[in-house]
Give the backbone structure.
Amino acid sequence: MSADPVPAGVEDAANPLLVEQVSYVAYDDTGRITVHGRMAGGVLQIARLEGHRMLPGEGQQATHYVDLSGDAPELRERPALDLPASLTATAGEEVTIAAVPAGPVRYAGPYNGSLSHPGGDLAIGFTIPGRYTLTIEPFPARRAEITLEVTA
């Protein structure tokens, strides 16, 4: 029984394009990184030629995104939001967080839930006292967490 033939165009099993491992990211149509890892450089080139949304480079979902606004996709760091780490409010009153970009806001504490923020100042308050964690993630910015202490 004979061995499987070597694929066309690969004369040597030690071909550096098939052996050398490179870091890569895969991304969706919004630029969110869906997978990151390492693979053979030649396999990455073939995947890209076949239309897969992949780029060479090191990046992770929490810290990077693929900028699709230019002529070619570019791996970039997700910008950090300039938001306070903690706030205090009285039960039944709202606090305002200035200039929060559009995106989902989740809150966890004595009362849990989420809302879709349209962008701009975010006014939020609770009638039940306690410590709430507000999680804000307006893509492509990095996720931010704010502790909101609601007093009686």
Notes: The mean pLDDT is 92. The first strand starts at residue 21 and ends at 27.
